[in-house]
Structure formats: C-alpha cells, structure tokens
Amino acid sequence: MTRKLAKNGQLVGEQRGGRNQWFIDPQSLANEIAERGGPWEGEVEKLADEVRRLVGKVAALETAGTGDPHEARAASQRDQYRAEAATMREVAIRANAAHRAAVGGFRQMLEAMEEQTNLVSELLGPRTPVDLGASGEAGGGR
C-alpha cells in the first residue's frame, strides 16, 4: 500500500536498489495518516469487536462446565482413571518385553549348560583304546 502511494506521488520517498525498495519520508507518512487515516483504521475496530466476542465465548465456556459439582468430580475421576490405565498399559508392555528378554537369556544359559554337561560327560565317560586313538590321545611317543 505504501509503495503504491509513493509511486502515485501521495507520499514523498525515493526508490533505491533493484528490489522495489522505497524509503519514505517519515513526515510525509505522518501527514498522509493525519489527512486520510491509515489503511488499518477500520480494522482496529473490527479486531477489538472480535476480541470482545471471543472473550465472551471463552467466559461462557468456562462457566458452562461448572454447573454440577458431581459432574465435575466425575469428569476429574474419569480423567485420572484414564491416565492411570495408560500408565499401567505402558508398564505392562515394558514388563512383557523384559520377560521376553529374560526368557531368551535363560534359554541361552540352558543351552550352554547342556553343552557343558555333554562335554563333561564325554570327558568322564568310559573310554576305549579306539576312542583314544580316534581323538589323537593314543599313541605312544612319550
């Protein structure tokens, strides 16, 4: 809007640079506003009316929910129970994941113990000269 007024000669200013930048004389702008009012003059009134309307609506909404104290208490308890249920669900999910990880670790431990048991059984079991020969332990070189 200001650029248009400057191009029409209604405001005193000069154009500088290649980007349509105008440098307006502040006194010229003040005179224009004093004579005609700013381009926003009617907008301030509209904005103030809208703010008053919205303030009224907010106040009405705030008082609408406070009619029955039992209703407010019930709503508060409902919200509390919902929050507790959400927390319990999250804890249950995390506990389930921890249980699965523990079971997996336990299975690995059992497999390792079974392998150790097999190795110890092999070491302690009866050995024949054929077994000793097959494993490389037989042979007399000593």
Q: Quick recap of the structure?
A:
Helices cover 73% and strands 6% of the residues.
Strand content: 5-15%
Encode the helix/strand succession as letters: HEEHHHH
How many angstroms separate the termini? Answer: 109 Å
Rg from Cα: 44 Å
Strand order of the largest sheet: 1-2
Q: What is the tally of helical segments? A: 5
Return the structural class: mainly alpha
Classify the helix fraction into a percent range: over 70%
Shape: elongated
Estimate the mean pLDDT confidence.
78
Give the strand tally. 2
The biggest sheet, with number of strands, parallel, antiparallel or mixed sense and barrel status, is: 2 strands, antiparallel
Uncertain residue segments: none
Characterise this structure.
With 142 residues, the protein is mainly alpha-helical. Helices cover 73% and strands 6% of the residues. It is built from 5 helices and 2 strands; from the N terminus they run αββαααα. It has a two-stranded antiparallel sheet. A hairpin with a 4-residue loop joins strand 1 and strand 2 (21-24). The longest helix has 56 residues, at 69-124. It is elongated. The mean pLDDT is 78.
